[in-house]
Design a protein that fits this description.
The protein contains 13 helices and 16 strands. The protein is an alpha/beta fold.
Length: about 375
């Protein structure tokens, strides 16, 4: 009963179920501890550059765009499972965008603003920090959708600053986007818009987190109802679930564009999306592309990511690599080699249907990170002093 009352109080009358011990973790103390500093900021993001740990590094910097639905430190939880720390140790100069948690003053920001101020201004800042004119880029979830859209715009304009792109559980074709398609009809979108207007022009992070939790309610709702309220257990000290509870708001204009133009109308996949006055197509993106998907991903289903992979690189898709990791949207990505968990399947071909790809794939035990690093080293050669 005490746990229940505390969660009701914390949610201002709504039930805000604790998934983890919210007092145990401290950002910068026992989470997000890889040394780095903010080298640039504007009104929608800060750009963090991480300190090198090797004497030499790859010539081309690595620029990462996490989702703006959650905090960036999913990629830098604790030293043992930090993707960022692992990448620095592999000799990469790593930059990560940390998106703002927007208030009402940013309610009119658009998806195009996130491309201009998020992608393009980050590219400019990396150039100022390193002197390098090109980067390798990573986009995670909606950060990947933004990156792909930006790359199509850059291809249309002949902007070649991004030389390779890796996508973590990111969609560009939403025709088979799973259970989230339940929320894309006009009545639902009008209700979400009213909810955002009432909240000052943004979607509260807790609302989106609840939606995602409902997609896996046995794991992310009812297990905690049983443990917290029926058994009276204290919340677990679990870094991933702490991060899952640390959601952020989204500006109204950005979120409605995402839901209407991508989920509802699927314009990018259909070649009908106009960004900054340009009609764009992912077929124009001919740089090396690596698409990672998770077998049990309920937010970006593996088949949806496969369909997305087939949009890049023109008719033969020769520049595209698709890889299927064990587990889901988070654990399928954050799977360091030292843990020796799960598995990953590889197949250099990209046939018409995913079922054909699976039939011809080779399954390997453990993390996919080293396989991807070999791919990155191949498309991003050259070394310089750190």
């Amino acid at each position: 009963m005490q746990n229940l009352l505390e969660d009701l109080d914390r949610g201002d009358g709504a039930l805000a179920i604790r998934q983890a011990d919210l007092d145990f973790f401290r950002i910068g103390e026992n989470l997000a501890t890889t040394p780095g500093k903010v080298v640039f900021q504007n009104e929608i993001m800060q750009l963090i550059q991480y300190a090198p740990t090797t004497e030499e590094v790859a010539r081309r910097p690595l620029l990462i765009f996490p989702p703006w639905i959650n905090k960036f430190y999913i990629l830098d939880m604790q030293p043992a499972n930090s993707f960022i720390r692992w990448m620095v140790d592999q000799g990469r100069t790593v930059f990560v965008v940390s998106w703002v948690n927007p208030g009402p003053e940013l309610r009119h920001k658009t998806f195009e603003d996130y491309i201009r101020q998020g992608l393009f201004e980050a590219l400019d800042a990396v150039n100022r920090a390193t002197g390098e004119e090109t980067v390798d880029a990573i986009g995670y979830c909606i950060g990947g959708t933004m990156l792909a859209t930006g790359l199509a715009l850059m291809a249309k304009r002949g902007d070649e600053r991004v030389k390779s792109a890796t996508f973590f559980t990111a969609q560009t074709d939403f025709s088979e986007a799973g259970d989230l398609l339940l929320f894309d009809d006009d009545a639902q979108l009008e209700a979400i818009e009213k909810q955002m207007d009432a909240a000052g022009g943004g979607l509260e992070g807790r609302a989106m987190a609840t939606t995602f939790n409902m997609l896996r309610s046995n794991d992310l709702i009812w297990s905690f109802v049983i443990d917290n309220y029926m058994k009276g257990k204290p919340p677990a000290k679990f870094d991933l679930l702490y991060w899952n509870s640390d959601a952020t708001r989204m500006p109204k204009g950005v979120h409605l564009f995402y839901l209407r133009e991508f989920y509802q109308k699927n314009r990018l996949a259909k070649g009908g999306m106009t960004i900054d006055g340009e009609l764009i197509s992912l077929a124009d993106v001919k740089i090396p592309v690596f698409m990672q998907a998770g077998e049990t991903d309920h937010i970006a289903p593996a088949k949806s990511v496969y369909n997305s992979a087939k949009l890049f690189g023109g008719p033969d898709h020769s520049s595209v690599t698709y890889m299927l990791a064990g587990s889901g949207h988070i654990a399928g990505v954050i799977n360091p080699p030292s843990k020796n968990k799960y598995h990953h399947s590889i197949n250099p071909a990209l046939p018409e249907k995913m079922e054909e790809w699976v039939a011809g794939a080779e399954k390997h035990p453990g993390s996919w990170w080293r396989y991807w690093m070999d791919w990155l080293d191949n498309v991003s050669p050259g070394r310089v002093r750190a």
